[in-house]
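quick one before i forget lol
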Amino acid sequence: MKIKKNIFKAIVSLNNKILPSLIHKDPAKLTKTEKAILGYRYWTLKNSK
């Protein structure tokens, strides 16, 4: 399990550098693509902990 967490931590670090930050946007007004990015970022963050 430790290897899996380390992989996800590396992915989260990469996501923070590459993917756009959506913190200042209203979740109700996000496009489908932005919702997918937000969901992916959440999924990787939850798996890294």
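fyi The helical segments are 2-18, 32-48.
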